[in-house]
Design brief:
Layout lengths: L10 E8 L9 E2 L5 E2 L29 E4 L10 H7 L5 E4 L8 E8 L4 E5 L2 H4 L8 E6 L12 E2 L4 H6 L3 E2 L5 E5 L1 E3 L18 E2 L5 H7 L9 E8 L5 E14 L10 E8 L4 E5 L5 H5 L3 H8 L7
Parallel strand pairs: 11-17, 12-14
Antiparallel strand pairs: 1-4, 1-8, 2-3, 4-7, 5-6, 5-8, 6-7, 9-16, 10-11, 13-16, 14-15, 15-16
Length: 306
């Protein structure tokens, strides 16, 4: 078993609430020069959930589940920064007011730009929610380390999720990490150059059809673990040959140039300590039995990767 510093991690209770859907208020233009008006970031999104395809929606930057902020008036300030930085993927979120009080969900990741987190709840719970509901996130994970792998940095990753990810130590001393997709460095767009990855995300550009087809990028689902090749995220988002970063898909494909499915970083290294291995079930929905997998279990059918 991999040795970690889990017992030394600081735990916070963080408060947030759902944020209404955002709109740019005017026409947007896609990477082919066509104007569009479509649903986008934020909201209590009833029919989009973790495990669904990140492609094909009549939208742009669509987020699964419930998008939450600590203060809608201060998206780039305290306490919203604390909510973004300390909430980790796989943390538990509990509704503390309203008709859905007591229901529990899961943190799915962070989204930059509008600075909020996404939470998974079943549709029947989301239908009871309002934008004034109070949600408490049991935050634990920032500062998480692998004792015997000091050159592998972990961000935004709860110990609960890590234990389910089936990470293995190989004979050559590398860490084998299951992912659904290998993403070439040239495809990483919006968000490159950020000073750190403890909040927000960055986008897999999907404007080149040939590259999308070659790497199967259009098969990605919300919640997929993906490997960003030749990208070092230890001190920001940067290109470095041989580096590998592992992230989770947090929002849908996009029409705007330089954008595409968003990825929140979970693991990163500068050299070859991380070895990604393809596993179609490498998705938080599959590991936690939430989203599409929760619906599938209730119907007696297992939903497969599209």
């Amino acid at each position: 078993m991999l040795k970690t510093n889990e017992k030394k991690l600081v735990e916070f209770l963080l408060q947030c609430q759902p944020g209404p859907p955002k709109t740019r208020g005017s026409w947007s233009v896609d990477h082919q020069g066509k104007p569009f008006l479509l649903p986008s970031i934020g909201g209590i999104t009833l029919n989009v959930q973790v495990g669904d395809s990140a492609f094909g929606w009549a939208g742009d930057h669509v987020e699964p589940g419930v998008s939450c902020t600590a203060d809608t008036h201060k998206p780039f300030d305290h306490p919203n920064n604390a909510l973004q930085i300390y909430s980790c993927v796989g943390n538990t979120a509990t509704i503390h007011s309203g008709a859905a009080e007591g229901e529990k969900g899961v943190v799915l990741g962070h989204h930059g730009g509008s600075e909020h987190i996404m939470l998974d709840f079943p549709r029947k719970v989301k239908e009871k929610m309002t934008y004034s509901d109070t949600i408490i996130v049991h935050a634990k994970g920032q500062g998480f380390k692998l004792v015997d792998f000091p050159d592998v940095a972990l961000f935004n990753l709860s110990p609960e999720l890590f234990r389910k990810m089936k990470v293995k130590v190989k004979d050559d001393g590398t860490l084998e990490v299951p992912v659904t997709t290998l993403v070439p460095a040239a495809c990483m767009g919006s968000g490159v150059g950020a000073s750190h990855v403890a909040k927000g995300d960055y986008d897999v550009m999907t404007s080149d059809p040939e590259t999308v087809s070659t790497f199967g990028l259009d098969k990605m689902r919300f919640g997929d673990f993906v490997a960003l090749l030749d990208h070092d995220n230890r001190y920001g988002r940067a290109y470095r040959k041989g580096a590998v970063s592992i992230g989770v898909v947090v929002h849908s494909d996009c029409l705007v140039a330089g954008h595409g499915p968003g990825v929140t970083t979970l693991m990163t290294c500068a050299a070859s300590e991380i070895r990604p291995v393809i596993d179609p079930a490498a998705n938080i929905a599959d590991l936690f039995g939430i989203g599409t997998q929760l619906a599938a279990s209730k119907s007696g059918k297992k939903k497969s990767k599209p």
